[in-house]
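Revision sheet: structure tokens.
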Amino acid sequence: MAEETPTPKVESAAPAASAPHEPRQGGPRSSGPRQGGPGGPGGPGGRKFFRRKKVCKFCVEKIDAIQYRDVRLLQGFVAERGKIVPRRLTGVCTTHQRRLTVAIKQARNIALLPFAAKF
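Predicted:
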């Protein structure tokens, strides 16, 4: 007959509850200082990310009228697929973006610019 040996009790490997005064570590919602981000680490030795303020090309060059016939100018504001590039990417002011949109649409209607890209 085999003798039965009592098996020792094994404690669970669960971590002990942390004290309420200790800050919680890790996780996407932690309230600690941010590391990294769009500009990389901002600590000592790290590069700081500096985004230049975008200025309106039409305001700087004092262009009042945006001509639909000026295809070379308009192509810079149309993406490869034929979409009009938004203000937040180009830096054009609101009034000139509206005029630019009208000019691009007029140029499309008389086939100076494509409606969509060719595949």
